[in-house]
Automatic annotation (TrEMBL), chain A:
Its main location: membrane. GO terms for cellular component: plasma membrane. Belongs to the binding-protein-dependent transport system permease family. CysTW subfamily. This is ABC transporter permease. The keyword Membrane applies. InterPro entries: MetI-like (IPR000515), MetI-like_sf (IPR035906). It is found in: Cell membrane. It holds the Pfam family BPD_transp_1. Residues 89-306 form the ABC transmembrane type-1 domain. The chain crosses the membrane at residues 28-55, 88-112, 124-142, 154-172, 184-203, 238-264, 284-305. It comes from Blastochloris tepida.
TrEMBL record, chain B:
Keywords: Cell membrane, Membrane, Transmembrane, Transmembrane helix, Transport. It comes from Blastochloris tepida. The keyword Membrane applies. Its main location: membrane. The chain crosses the membrane at residues 12-35, 66-91, 103-122, 134-158, 179-201, 207-226, 238-258. This is Spermidine/putrescine ABC transporter permease. It is a multi-pass membrane protein. The keyword Transport applies. It comes from the Bacteria.
Length: 315, 270
């Protein structure tokens, strides 16, 4: 190397070079820069709105003038305990529980088959088969059941074509779950909820099942356990976090939905409908706000329990 | 992948494929009804089949306006979500910091809580601040719950992208922007595309939050909902439903193919 060559001039400092050096020296600065826009958006737009909502639940509606009185009061909260309102909360929770249990029962075989018995091609088919309805149009799927459950629709036709019309009529005559037609009964509402939220249950269960070590199943079989026994004592306990994770979605989504019971179902209100009605036609925003805190509170308890059961690792 | 697959019992097989059929047959029903000649009710089987409702639906000005608005809202919301979701994913995946758990919770909250909560919360905030309804109030709501979709896709890919690649790039003299453009971006591109596609599908279909933030404007789902509650021309609703199925299925399938093998991530084995 020639000793005379002039020392290389440092490359001209461009602004992004200087910025890069700054970030390398202070990684926290880069982190702050990355986090600020999304946190500002969610913090201001979303959390701000949630607090605005919560605050409104401590206002009250003047029954005579229909004007919102902004003096803090617990009266609106107390009116949640009126029998009619308590009824709505209970009905919604019962429906959410029924939907969640049914979804777990229907979803388990799908997830089990896909996780343990399907080859790569069938497994991919199952995955797409569950994911497509999960992401595809909610309204179209609700609408499809309006076509199916209508009096002159497919289900009625199928039952009559099979000569089983009396079975359908018998079910509709049942107290509580029956009604004038399938599309105006608890049974109809339940079916649509089950259909619409089912994919949310399949995927977490399948994820949990796929994490069951095959060696455990082999060991159980080697030790002489019949498949049924292996299922109950090895597979099921390990799949439970997945079931709980799925139930978070099915339960929460049923609690808040106001469209399904409006389109398919009787005249009894659900939580979401009550919120919608009070904020809209009734103009009672404080009561709507108090109502909407109920599912949030229920879900907070539910999430805390689910976390204990390890459901968050299965999400 | 398990090499020692055991054959499934007949009961399990039936339950599994029956469940899958349960998820898809109703959509087939919607498609069938788009061709029925029956105008007044939901008669099954259809008395006859026709293509004429597709032409009728195309002519309807309200349908076209609703479709256009939905496309615009979904495009802008997806763009906002892509930027904010990628930034959040980059921050959360690259370092551990105080409050990291709270950040992920905050991102998930808009979809973990029932949609009606998000909707009514935004509405009451708009009311208090006296913000008038507009295109942008819809976008504000949609972008909020779309961020998490982009975030989820991006954070998974960031975690699998080796940090040594970035270090190597910087060691070789690339600055932060060059490293982002030539190393980071190519690695996360398909995950971003997939996240963007899903966010688009989600926004295009959103009805609950939109009900509260749209004012007088009609997106396609709002149009459909009003037809469900107060039907005017049933065959047109059927045709629009088929259109929605097609428009949402395509991005979902594309998103699946782009993330199926985790994309090709350079330096994965390190």
């Amino acid at each position: 190397m020639s000793a005379w060559s002039a020392p290389l001039a440092p490359p001209p400092e461009s602004w992004h070079r200087r910025l890069t050096d700054l970030f390398v020296a202070h990684p926290a600065l880069l982190l702050l820069l990355l986090l600020t826009p999304p946190m500002l958006w969610l913090g201001v737009v979303y959390l701000g709105s949630l607090f605005a909502l919560l605050a409104q639940s401590f206002f009250s509606l003047d029954d005579f003038s229909g004007v919102i009185d902004r003096t803090p009061t617990l009266a609106t909260w107390a009116s949640l305990l009126a029998p009619a309102n308590l009824d709505i909360v209970l009905r919604t929770m019962l429906m959410a529980t029924a939907v969640t249990i049914a979804a777990a029962l229907v979803a388990f075989p799908i997830a089990h088959y896909a996780a343990f018995h399907a080859g790569p091609r069938v497994k991919a088919m199952f995955y797409v088969g569950v994911m497509l309805p999960l992401w595809s149009s909610y309204l179209v799927r609700v609408y499809s059941w309006k076509l199916i459950l209508a009096k002159e629709g497919i289900l009625g036709w199928l039952f009559h074509a099979a000569g089983l019309g009396f079975v359908l009529d018998g079910v509709l005559d049942l107290p509580v779950i029956g009604g004038p037609s399938l599309s105006a009964s608890y049974l109809g509402t339940f079916l649509v909820f089950l259909y619409v939220w089912l994919p949310f249950m399949v995927l977490p269960i399948q994820a949990a099942l796929e994490r069951v070590p095959p060696s455990l199943i082999e060991a159980s079989a080697d030790l002489g356990a019949p498949p049924r026994y292996t299922f109950r004592t090895v597979i099921l306990p390990l799949a439970l976090p997945g079931v709980v994770a799925g139930s978070i979605f099915t339960f929460s989504l049923t609690l808040g939905d106001f469209i399904i019971p409006q389109i398919v179902g009787g005249s009894q209100l659900y939580l979401g409908q009550a919120v919608y009605m009070h904020q809209g036609t009734a103009g009672n925003i404080p009561l709507a706000a108090a109502f909407s805190v109920v599912p949030v509170a229920i879900m907070a308890v539910y999430l805390a329990l689910a976390k204990r059961l390890g459901a968050f690792d299965a999400l | 992948m398990r090499s020692d697959r055991r054959p499934a019992g007949i009961g399990l097989t039936l339950a599994a494929f029956g469940g899958l059929a349960f998820l898809h047959l109703p959509l087939a029903v919607v498609v069938l009804y788009a061709f029925t000649t029956d105008e007044k009710s939901y008669t099954f089987p259809p008395p006859g089949l026709t293509l004429k409702w597709f032409a009728v639906a195309l002519e309807r000005e309200d349908v076209r306006a609703a479709i256009a608005l939905s496309f615009e809202v979904a495009a802008i919301s997806t763009l906002v979500a892509l930027i904010l979701g990628t930034l959040a994913a980059a921050a959360v995946s690259r370092s551990r910091f105080f409050g990291r758990e709270s950040v992920s919770l905050l991102l998930i909250l808009p979809i973990a809580l029932p949609g009606i909560i998000t909707g009514i919360a935004l509405r009451s905030a708009f009311n208090i601040l006296e913000i008038p309804w507009s295109f942008w109030t819809i976008v504000l709501g949609h972008a909020t719950f779309c961020i998490v979709v982009v975030y989820n896709n991006a954070v998974a890919r960031f975690r699998r992208t080796s940090a040594s690649l970035i270090e190597a790039s910087m060691d070789l003299g690339a600055d932060g922007f060059q490293t982002f453009r030539w190393v980071v971006l190519p690695n996360i591109a398909t995950a971003l595309l997939a996240g963007g596609m899903l966010a688009f599908a989600l926004s295009f279909d959103e009805v609950i939050v939109t009900t509260f933030t749209a004012g007088q404007q009609t997106t396609l789902p709002i149009w459909m909902l009003s037809e469900l509650v107060r039907p005017r021309q049933r065959p047109v609703t059927n045709v629009v439903a088929v259109f929605v199925i097609v428009v949402t299925f395509l991005p979902i399938l594309l998103a699946y193919y782009w993330t199926r093998d985790g994309g090709t991530v350079a330096g994965q084995g390190k």
